UniProtKB/TrEMBL annotation:
Residues 334-469 form the GGDEF domain. Residues 252-304 form the PAC domain. Residues 478-730 form the EAL domain. SMART domains: EAL (SM00052), GAF (SM00065), GGDEF (SM00267), PAC (SM00086), PAS (SM00091). InterPro entries: Biofilm_reg_signaling, EAL_dom, EAL_sf, GAF, GAF-like_dom_sf, GGDEF_dom, Nucleotide_cyclase, PAC. Residues 174-249 form the PAS domain. Pfam families: EAL, GAF, GGDEF, PAS_3. This is Diguanylate cyclase. It comes from the Bacteria. It comes from Pseudidiomarina aquimaris.
Length: 730
């Protein structure tokens, strides 16, 4: 054997044998037979076919290994440092002798003890390398070009079969995974026909647990069709849901009931999708179905808890809105009247008799409403939405406003008899508002309209109020004004005005209070009481205060640049600003470059007492940084002398209500005198607000008040006018 045997290879005979092998065997059998043929044709001691994978390019996996006349067990080996590595990198590798010496670290090669080696890669049609074909001999061998050509042909055939083998493996693995997945699902996976009965073609083993029927009972409707399992009341819903989703080319998701083999009813959740043929016709559905009975029962229990008021058993706010939303969606032609009832003086029940009495009262109110609802067939729902507020929903008739009064009077009649709370009798008084659904686009808006009407009734001490066009216009105007203000605040369009602070002893201006003003292009000049109330309701008082302080500091810097002698200024600060974690750092940043002793921060007595401990901390830090502090509207709050001694404040501002009354009300004058005396004892400065007459100014001066501000001295004015009137250039 050796060189002579290989040279005499009949290439045509070899190709004929390859073709015969291809006809008779496929994939792995073909590759194994190929190694035997090559061994016989070439007189080779060893013939090996190995494959590689992209995720492990340094490892070869033996597909077939014919060695010393026998097929060997497939193994894996390391390509690094082997002649096979060269085959894959250089498209071929030939060693006529000394191959073991050339690759001393190739363990598999050393075990074989081969002397010669020839290898070619196995390539796909697009030249991707699937592996290699190698021939080894135990003696030195001269491999001719004919041998090389023969191996290339054999490698191409092996590559084709190996590619098919991989496809087969992948398909088998996919099928195995699909079958495992289908049978591991908690429910039932399926494929069914798009027919009236949803005739099943494929059903997973989960069908037994789900329905009580074996999978084969459902396949081809051999015992029962899936469509027959669907609860009769839900069949139309299921059919329509599937059809609608299919038309949109989307998955359908449906919850419905089925009747199981033991005649029990279970809730299921199904997700599926239509499968179309080449003509675009949906012929089948595929998907899965889960048993959700327990979840459905749990959700019903949760809904019962979530939508029901625990104390009275009536619907709560969430239950009311859920009911109304469903009516808006399902029954748009029917209008409703929502009546909101407020139990007046309810708080005093809790305060006088205790919370248990309050709960008892609410329970009795609910019971009387139930009794009354039985007498009025148009009442469709009762609810308790807050502590002392109840809702009655009524179907409307043609006489809208008249109907509201009729319903309101009927409801009041339910409470003509007193309620006994222990040993005490209580006469229930109601305040009632209403709104009609045709005026609202949603359930939430309808309830909001009734709440707006209730707010209006409380504001004006009305027993009845209905949300009508007039109230709607008023609310719309308030909403518009709110939107305009927030826009002005956001776009920095608010202005500052200054009202001079006058020394009462010589009528000289010693400073000014900074006041915020809003001049709107559409609304004109809007009262501070109005827009400050908007800021409070919208929660933007800190932003408003910050903007005023910023504008004040900017104005001071301009005056400083223009050479004016800077006045002392005071700026109002809200409790919400004091509560900010970085309030002191924010003030210092805003006032950077200015003498902080020029700036007095005013906070009302009531705001100061919201959190006295916080106020003590913040005022102390602000004083440490040079700011002066004033308590605004002093005398109207509840601060104690003990707290006042602890606060790091400099100024008490006497509320204008006392100043206005001091000349005709002795008690107001006495209170002012007391405040001034107390301030003097604490070494604090006093400023009287709202001074409007000379007589008030003189009286305050006589009482020892040091400073005053008000219309008697000057109205608030723009920074330009203030500078012209009161400031001097250095």
């Amino acid at each position: 054997m050796g060189v002579e045997a290989i040279k005499q290879v009949d290439i045509d005979k070899a190709f004929h044998l390859f073709a015969a092998n291809l006809r008779e065997a496929r994939e792995l059998e073909f590759i194994e037979n190929l190694t035997k043929l090559l061994s016989r044709l070439l007189g080779a001691d060893h013939v090996m076919v190995s494959e590689i994978f992209e995720d492990a390019p340094d490892t070869a996996h033996v597909v077939a290994f014919y060695s010393n006349g026998e097929l060997q067990q497939p193994v894996s080996y390391n390509l690094v440092g082997s002649p096979c590595e060269k085959v894959l990198s250089a498209d071929s590798c030939v060693f006529n002798e000394g191959v073991c010496e050339s690759f001393p670290h190739d363990e598999m090669l050393q075990e074989l003890g081969a002397a010669s080696y020839i290898g070619v890669p196995m390539l796909t049609a697009d030249q991707n390398k699937l592996g290699l074909l190698a021939v080894l001999n135990d003696t030195p061998t001269d491999y001719s070009s004919t041998v090389f050509e023969l191996l290339q042909v054999a490698a191409a055939q092996a590559a084709a079969e190996l590619a098919q083998l991989r496809i087969t493996r992948n398909l088998q693995e996919s099928q195995r995974r699909l079958e495992t997945l289908m049978n591991s699902l908690p429910g039932m996976a399926y494929r069914c026909k798009n027919d009236e009965l949803w005739s099943m073609e494929i059903v997973s083993r989960g069908a037994l647990d789900l329905t009580g029927y074996q999978p084969q009972d459902l396949i081809n409707n051999s015992r029962i069709a899936w469509g027959e399992l669907i609860h009769p009341e839900d069949r139309e819903l299921v059919q329509q849901g599937g059809d609608d989703a299919t038309k949109r080319g989307q998955y359908f998701r449906l919850a419905y009931r089925i009747i199981c083999a033991d005649e029990s009813i279970r809730w299921v959740w199904e997700q599926g999708k239509g499968i179309a043929n080449d003509q675009g016709e949906v012929t089948h559905f595929e998907g899965f179905i889960l048993d959700v009975t327990e979840q459905h029962q749990h959700q019903e229990h949760i809904a019962e808890i979530a939508f029901r008021d625990e104390l009275t058993g009536l619907a709560n706010r969430a239950g009311l809105l859920d009911f109304l939303e469903s009516q808006y969606e399902q029954n748009g032609e029917q209008d409703y009247l929502l009546v909101l009832l407020d139990v007046r003086y309810f708080r005093s029940i809790n305060e006088r008799f205790g919370l248990h009495a309050g709960d008892r009262l609410l329970s009795i109110v609910a019971e009387r409403l139930r009794d009354g609802a039985r007498d009025f067939q148009d009442i469709v729902m009762l609810a308790r939405i807050t502590g002392d507020e109840f809702v009655v929903v009524v179907k409307t008739n043609a006489l809208k406003a008249e109907q509201f009064m009729t319903v309101a009077n009927n409801l009041k009649s339910c409470f003509e008899d007193s309620i006994l709370l222990g040993e005490h009798k209580w006469d229930v008084e109601l305040r009632i508002s209403g709104a009609f659904s045709y005026n609202a686009d949603s359930a939430a808006e309808l309830l909001q309209q009734a709440s707006i009407a209730m707010h209006e009734a409380k504001q004006h001490e009305l027993l009845y109020c209905i949300f009508d066009e007039g109230l709607e216009r008023k609310v719309s105007a308030e909403r518009h004004r709110t939107e305009r203000f927030l826009k002005a605040l956001r776009e920095d369009k608010l202005s500052i005005y200054l009202q001079p602070l006058i020394c009462l002893s010589d009528n000289q201006c010693v400073g000014a209070e900074v006041l915020c003003r809003w001049f709107d292009d559409e609304l004109g000049a809007v009262s501070p009481d109005v827009f400050i109330d908007i800021a409070r309701k919208q929660g933007v008082l800190p932003e408003l205060g910050s903007q005023v302080l910023t504008k004040t500091c900017e104005q001071l810097r301009r005056w400083q640049y223009d050479g004016f002698e800077l006045p002392y200024v005071s700026v109002n600060v809200g409790a919400q600003q004091f509560a900010a974690p970085d309030v002191v750092d924010d003030f210092l940043s805003t006032c950077a470059g200015l003498d902080t002793q020029l700036i007095t921060l005013e906070i009302t007595e009531s705001d100061l007492m919201l959190d006295p401990q916080l106020a003590l901390t913040v005022t102390g830090r602000l004083r440490d940084h040079g700011f002066r502090l004033a308590i605004d509207d002093f005398g109207t709050g509840y601060s104690s002398l003990a707290y006042l001694q602890q606060f790091s404040v400099d100024i008490l501002k006497i509320d204008m209500s006392f100043v206005h009354e001091m000349l005709r009300d002795a008690s107001s004058k006495t209170l002012i005198n007391t405040i001034i005396a107390m301030a003097r004892s604490l070494d604090l400065v006093t400023i009287a607000e709202g001074v409007e007459t000379e007589q008030q100014a003189q009286a305050l001066k006589q009482l020892g008040c040091e400073y005053g501000q008000g219309y008697y001295f000057a109205h608030p004015m723009s920074p330009e006018d203030f500078a012209k009137t009161w400031l001097q250039q250095q």
